[in-house]
């Protein structure tokens, strides 16, 4: 089971569960997460969604083995991707989303935080968006959401540099709300989730809708721009070389 789902006191916890590959998103996990978000949205007993990762990672991002397969296997590429299915589900989620970043968050494991209403992060966790090191473009409307959330220069460094961001720096930048000791992370995230879950769901939805409504058109436009650039760059020389180096290292492990 690539995604664990549990309910307690009107809080639905989704746990990314591919710990052997640091919870990297493959097509199965994209679809499972999207489905779980849709189900939480439609469940009248769920007030808050809490998202975290199993093992030592939050998510290592897109499964790069699958990314390379998209370049080398036209039949697989023609099947499309559930990446956009998950992004649509995140965009449409009408209830509060809390992320508890328990370990490394890479690529979509970092950019999806732009959709969270509250982000808690372990003091030992780190974030990275390796788009330039992979020779590709941003994703998940991060080119729009992150400057709004973090300010232009903080977002520029995160998206352009492909460098690691430590937890305290992520908090200073505004991407993370609270940094916690590793053993306290889930307790703190859950404590705040319980506070929200004690409020009327109709009111939670109204507040969130009024906050996110101004961003909907911007997310859609940014997503279209990013897809255009990503499609152009994926499989080009820089991307092909980066993926070959990655799979080569993986094969020699």
Automatic annotation (TrEMBL):
Transmembrane domains' residue ranges: none
Pfam families per record: ECH_1 (PF00378)
CDD domains on file: crotonase-like
Chief place where the protein resides: other
Subcellular location, record wording: Peroxisome
Key word Protein biosynthesis present: no
UniProt keyword terms in alphabetical order: Isomerase, Peroxisome
Classification via InterPro entries: ClpP/crotonase-like_dom_sf (IPR029045), ECH/Chromodomain_protein (IPR051053), Enoyl-CoA_hydra/iso (IPR001753)
Record keyword Isomerase present: yes
Protein name, as recorded: Enoyl-CoA hydratase-related protein
Organism encoding this protein: Mycobacterium deserti
